[in-house]
C-alpha cells in the first residue's frame, strides 16, 4: 500500500523555532503536505507531497483571486524557502474557524443548518465571480502529469481527457469495483464533450469544511488550501463537487449530498444532470489519490458515488 497523506514531525517544529516561531504547532495535513501555525499572523506549509511545480504560477493564481473583492479572504504567500530540497511557503494566517471538523476524522451527526448552507452559497457565488485566468489554466490537478487545460480550449473537453487518463492509472483496480467500467467511462467522456461551452471562473475543487473558515455568526471569513483540484472551469463543477464532499463519511452523508445538490441546482441555476455528471467525473479522477490499492476510505467513497450517479445513455 502507498499512502499519500502527509504528516507532521517534531523536526519541523524545531526548524520553525530556530526561525523565531517558538509557538509553532501542527495545524493540518493532507495530500500535498503539512501546515503549521506559527503565530504572528503567519502559517507555514511544508510541501512534502506534491510541491507546486511553478511557485511563480501559484503566486499568480493567488494574486488573480485576490484582485477581486470577495466577501472572504484568500491565501497570500509572504515568503518561500527550501530546506533539504523540500519547499516551504510562509503564508498569511486566515481568520475564523473551520465550518465543521473533517468528516473523515469526526463524522458529523447533526443535519445541515440554514447558516451552513448560506455560508456555502456565499462562497460558491463569490468564487464564481472570479474569472478563469491563463495562470489557472496552467495548473496541474492532483495526481495528473500535465496542466489540465493543455491542448484544450474548453473545460468540458479538458475534464473529459482527464477522466480518460485518470481511469487508466489503476484501471484494473477500478474495474474490479465498478461494473462495466469501460462503458461508464465512455458515457461520461461523451457526455462531458457534449456539454455547452460556458464562461469559466476559478475552481477551488476541495471545499471541505476545514477549508472554509467562518466567524461566530457563521459568516465565511476565509477560503484556504487551494491546489488539490484548483483550475479554471465551470462554476457548476465547483457546486457539484462541494455538494458531495461537504459530508463524505458521516451517517447522513448521502442525504446531505442529495440535499446540497438540489439546493445548488435551484439557487445557482445549474442543471441537475450536469451536476451528476460532474460528480461522476470527480470520482473517476480522484479515486486513487489517497492510496494506490483501494484500501482507503476515499476509494470506497468514489465507488459508491459512481454507483449512484446516473450517466446519460
Task: Report what the structure shows.
This protein is an alpha+beta fold. It has two domains: 10-92, Phosphorylase Kinase, domain 1; 97-308, Aminoglycoside 3'-phosphotransferase, Chain: A, domain 2 (Alpha-Beta Complex), CATH 3.90.1200.10. Helix content is 41%, strand content 15%. It has eleven helices and ten strands. The strands form three sheets. The protein has a five-stranded antiparallel β-sheet, with no helix packed on it. α8 packs antiparallel against α9 (253-268). The longest helix has 16 residues, at 253-268. Residues 1-5 have low confidence and may be disordered.
Major β-sheet profile: 5 strands, antiparallel
State the distance separating the first and last CA atoms: 36 Å
In quaternary terms, these chains amount to single chain
Helical proportion, percent range: 40-55%
CATH domain class name of the largest domain = Alpha Beta
What strand line-up does the widest sheet have?
A: 1-2-3-5-4
Query: Measured on Cα atoms, how large is the radius of gyration?
Result: 19 Å
**SSE sequence, one letter per element:** HEEEHEEEHHHHHEEEEHHHH
What is the number of helical segments per DSSP (H or I, 4+ residues)? 11
How many domains, as an integer? Answer: 2
Structural class: alpha+beta
Total strands: the figure is: 10
Strand portion: 5-15%
Mean pLDDT figure: 92
GO molecular function, one term: transferase activity
Pfam family, one: APH
Domain Aminoglycoside phosphotransferase: 24-260
Region (Disordered): 92-115
